[in-house]
Amino acid sequence: METRNLLYLTPPHTQPVLLSDIRAAGWNAQVTENPDEARVMINSERFHVGLALFDSTNNIDFLGENLISTGGPMKWIALLPPSQMQNEDISQMIQENFYDYHTLPADSKRLLPILGHAYGMASIPHKPLIQGDEYPGEDEMVGASPAMLALFSNLRKISGVDAPVLITGESGTGKELGATAIHERSSRSGGPFVAVNCGALPPNLIQSELFGYEKGAFTGAAQRKIGHIEAAAGGTIFLDEIGDLPMDMQVNLLRFLQEKTIERVGGTEHINVDVRVIAATHVDLETAVKEGRFREDLYYRLHVLDLKMPALRDRQGDIELLARFFFKKFAAEKCRNVQGFTREAIRIMSDHDWPGNVRELINRIRRAMVMCENRLITPADLGLERRASGRHMLTLDEVRSTAEREAIQTALRRTHKNVSKAAQELGVSRVTLYRLMEKCGLHHAHGMM
Ligand SMILES: Nc1ncnc2c1ncn2[C@@H]1O[C@H](COP(=O)(O)OP(=O)(O)OP(=O)(O)O)[C@@H](O)[C@H]1O
Ligand SMILES: [Mg+2]
Question: Comparing C-alpha atoms, which of 436, 418, 401 is closest to residue 37?
Answer without folding.
Answer: 436
